[in-house]
Amino acid sequence: MILDELPVPIVLAPLAGGPSTPRLTAAVGEAGGLGFLAAGYLTAEGLRARLDETRALTRRPIGVNLFVPGRPADPEIVARYAAGLAEEAARTGAGLGEPRFEDDEWAAKLDLLTAAPVPVVSFTFGCPSPEVAGRLHRAGSEVWVTVTREDEAAQAVAAGADALVVQGAEAGGHRASFVDDPADRGEEMGLLSLLQLLRAAVDVPLVATGGIATGAGVAAVLAAGASAAQLGTAFLRCPEAGTAPVHRQALASSAPTAMTRAFTGRLARGIRNRFMHRYGDDAPVAYPEIHHVTAPLRRAARAAGDPDLVNLWAGQAHALAREVPAGELVGLLAAETDASLRAAAARLRRE
């Protein structure tokens, strides 16, 4: 497996929606980690172009992350929520986008990745069918599935997952849950609790993600049974990332985070702002329809540097993100991880 071959047990989270770039993916890979490209929100042709650019920058293994399509939302529910945003649209002059359901060019992207395979294809927002996993296996790709609870893990392993990305509630950005249903969510589980439960329940490698920003955090999840740590927020301030300036500024603060559906209609963690506070309680489960509705507002706010209308996705430890090149960050994390593990071993020997 790729995880057994990594010089450094660090995986770059996909970071769909702007921060993901070929330069960032390549830099993490060249430093010894595993770089991922986000396919989410791209067309299949856009993904092809980014794959070509990344392959020109590095010969190291890379991964691609796909969004598993969901189901259309009730148009009346979406329309009511959109009507409540009229004041914001008028204030910014940006207008609102048209709500629409689409599958993120699922079939075309699968065709691309079976014709021009990458070492790893990971999935978010659901579990690929055994048939899809089989297609990718035959093309030579490993299949990773992101999970947030035990029943999802069992389903993913049964479908043919080679590894699980275990997402704790501390993670920034969208929850990877197979079904975004408030009535069925229960308690959002923290990373270490979930990691321990899954290590006892499944017999595939685990990649831990959520709130990891330092080598000490990487060491902690390795000690708890993970084969590697996946970091996203920690890389958002790197110069290779496509993170918007207003987002970079917010990441450098100690502002608290919260879960919300206000921006996209799907549960996600970001830095608290006025939009989340005002509309979070009203936002229905309606992804990607609400994502398309709010897109013009968010685009205008990023251009204007207004943090109160931007989805400032960030994990709970975002204040620890460092503004250094991605390759340097991987090196720092590797050294910190080694030091933390050595210190823990020394303490155990003393005891």
TrEMBL record:
UniProt KW Secreted keyword: no
Keywords: Detoxification, Flavoprotein, FMN, Monooxygenase, Oxidoreductase
Presence of the UniProt keyword Flavoprotein in the record: yes
Protein name per UniProt: Propionate 3-nitronate monooxygenase
Molecular function GO labels: monooxygenase activity
SUPFAM superfamilies cross-referenced by the UniProt entry: Inosine monophosphate dehydrogenase (IMPDH)
Species: Actinoallomurus spadix
Cofactor: FMN
PROSITE patterns in alphabetical order: DHODEHASE_2
